[in-house]
Amino acid sequence: MPIKLKRIYDDVSKDDGVRILVDRLWPRGISKERAKVDEWMRDIAPSNELRKWVHEDFSRWAEFKLKYFDDLREHTEAVESIRKMAKRKTVTLLFAAKNVEQNNAVALLEYLNNAK
After folding, report:
1. Where are the domains of the chain?
2. Do residues 103 and 97 touch, judged by C-beta distance below 8 A?
3. pTM of this prediction?
4. 36 with 21: CB under 8 angstroms?
5. Predicted local distance difference test score (pLDDT) of residue 2
6. CA atoms of 108 and 45, how far apart (whole Å)
7. In whole angstroms, how far apart are CA 114 and each of 11, 59, 83, 109, 110?
8. CA 23, CA 72: separation in Å to the nearest integer?
């Protein structure tokens, strides 16, 4: 089954499957009822320091991913949990960032697809 990405502010769809929020902070302006999050994996998100560091200058994106991938290697249980879920059903990784091409969910999906 596929792993998809979606902004948490977008409409909920039955095609989302399991909805997992992968941000460290709860998104502003959205209630838990509206978000319809099945699981919040805040520990799999980048540290606040790393998140702020890349947001200061997105030219650091490639370096951010390397640092974040190093961090993810310490969260093998959570990573494997997502992979196992995705074998049985659709999983949607939710994020709040406005930048839909450079955010931790995009990097996490790349890691899930490439690192074994």
Report:
1. 3-114
2. yes
3. 0.92
4. no
5. 86
6. 9
7. 29, 22, 12, 9, 6
8. 14
Amino acid at 65: K
Q: Which is nearest to 18 in space by CA: 108, 81, 110, 111?
A: 81
Phi, psi of 73 (to 5 degrees): -65, -20
Say how far apart CA 20 and CA 79 lie, in whole Å: 12
The C-alpha atoms of residue 6 and residue 18 are separated, in whole angstroms, by 12
pLDDT greater than 80 at residue 115: no
Q: What is the number of alpha carbons within 13 Å of residue 28 lying toward its C-beta?
A: 2
Give the model confidence (pLDDT) of 57-108 as tens digits: 989 999 999 999 999 999 999 999 999 999 999 999 999 999 999 999 999 9
